[in-house]
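Deliverable D4.2, example record:
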Amino acid sequence: MSMGKAKPKVIFLNGVTSSGKTSIAEAMQNMAADAGKHFYIISNDMFHDLEWHMMNTEFAEKEKEAEKAAGKPEKSWYADKYMTESIVLMYHFAAAVAGQGRNIIIDGMFFETETFIEEYGKSSYDVMRAALAGFDVFTVEVFCPLDECRRRNIARGDRRENQSQEQHEMMNTAVKYDFSVDTSADGTEECARKILAGLNKWEAAKYMAGHSKWKNIMHKKGKTDAQRAKVFTKIGKEIAIAVKEGGANPVSNTKLRDLIAKAKGLNVPNDNIERIIKKASGADRADYENITYEGYGPNGVAVIVECATDNRNRTSGDLRHYFDKFGGNMGAVGCVSYMFARKGIIGVEADGADENQFMGDVLEAGADDFMLIEGDGDGDDGGVFEVYADPAQVLEVSGKLAGAGYKILSAEAEMVPSTYAALDDDESAANMNRLLEHLDDHDDVLNIWHNWEN
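Output generated by the structure prediction step:
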């Protein structure tokens, strides 16, 4: 089964002329390239020639005369009609580029004029959101005091002295930004670094808004014997499949080596692990196979179920029954997996750890980033560091963190959704919970991934 690609990053820099946003966009592009990522810059200037072309056609001149006769000032022709059309065109062009999976930086302005309301029934900001529906847009205010912008306009010589003031008067001041920088306080490079760092934290926060794994388990300190038995059974199946595919030597079979580490992390006794490997190497071993099912929970919540089974007819029949019983339905392979990306997630006990020291240790271990998920301060619940790493290196990174003295709670590659679905009514939420509980209780189910924002 092919997994979907991660959703492209979309950054919108909003600021008046000479605020410094174009230089910041270029600096961000260079910094991202140094880190092995690429951003395409889409700006108002790209559509400037088109805008003037639209303004100077014969049809535009006739419209212009009609508007002047109606008493509208000539200045409105730049500020309203054709500027509106070119900006909306830019939004849709940006959506087309992002739709190809490309990361983009939009160097633009949220103008709030009568024309936007008259033509589209909504503000320019809302028009942008509609055009880029389906993408997460990180909005950034690039602030600069108007006196400083005026000074920069004079120094540049290619802008009207009061052009920034004129644009500021047309700006949508009701926009609530995800991030803000002040170019009069920080230089271009520093602003670019702050924005990219803010983007990472913003994405992590959005991810955690729907990924409540640690919040759900923090208060489940112990498992019953029956629950432990299920864990042992499931990891045992994974180990058996790994032995079947690559042999019983963990030195040459890296998948088996990783599963042994995972089993130890789940407190599976060494004797059990050795017994599972020995049994899987014998002639009477069970013939398990990995199979993944996809479907929808109540109200279209996307669900992926990873299984290990020796009877796919039994497993698929059971899972289909669960989906149907609790308001969902099984789907074809690929129906929801495009909404997920595989990421390495490591849970590290945070109780008593110094966050600054942990940051240094995380980077030294080769991880990409981390986030502190705070506990409620009750008893021994001190929270969890959730560390993000390349899925192929997740166990290597967790091993280094364990070697640095940290307690690893889990380390595995997880399917992380790019978008989330909310369930607003109690009945749907209850059915979704029951579906997940029944899937989790099934002996053949190894992992369940979903995009329910709970």
